[in-house]
Specification:
This protein is α/β, with parallel strands linked by helices.
């Protein structure tokens, strides 16, 4: 039986080709990545009708960096709940919320931390919603090579993207 996964995200998902999940997961998983660089929760709310057309068992929401830059913490919880409610209104599906990495951009680190705390609160109050804690994975990383190139404090290098993909894979497979 096939399981359909749809990634709704921003440049982190788009530029990593959905964190390589098509190749990381067994063949019964069908991965669709509709991520758009620069998108916020508000952009996805404005374009939500295109999401209705995708049969999905599991939604991966990988959003928050652009929200932190554009809106700060203002309205993040309301927009995220609205998006989750929309995704679950037409299909019986689960949602994985991504606690995104805080990046190497000092000006948004605290905002991302607060928005990730908001996602933890949402998980506690919503059924069929779970968390993928990329934030902790990045914060506890001890490797010699940094996860971000010097030229880009927001988008991880391949090591960072591989860490993300492996974390999603383990969560989806229950490992």
């Amino acid at each position: 039986m096939n399981r359909n996964i749809t990634i709704v995200g921003d440049s982190l998902a788009q530029w990593s080709e959905g964190f390589g999940l098509r190749n990381r997961l067994p063949s019964e998983f069908r991965v669709t990545d509709v991520s758009v660089a620069g998108y916020t929760t508000e952009d996805w709310l404005q374009n939500q009708n295109r999401l209705n057309e995708i049969p999905t068992d599991l939604w991966i929401l990988e959003l928050g960096t652009n929200d932190a830059m554009v809106y700060g913490t203002n309205g993040f919880e309301i927009r995220t709940l609205e998006l989750i409610n929309f995704l679950q209104s037409n299909q019986i599906s689960s949602v994985l919320l991504t606690l995104i990495p805080r990046t190497n951009m000092t000006s948004i680190k605290e905002t991302i931390r607060e928005n990730n705390d908001t996602l933890r609160k949402i998980k506690a109050q919503k059924e069929k919603v779970d968390i993928v804690d990329i934030e902790s994975i990045f914060e506890s990383y001890q490797g010699e090579i940094p996860l971000y190139p010097i030229s880009d404090p927001i988008h991880p290098n391949q090591i960072g993207y591989d860490l993300m993909g492996e974390t999603y894979r383990k969560k989806i497979l229950g490992i």
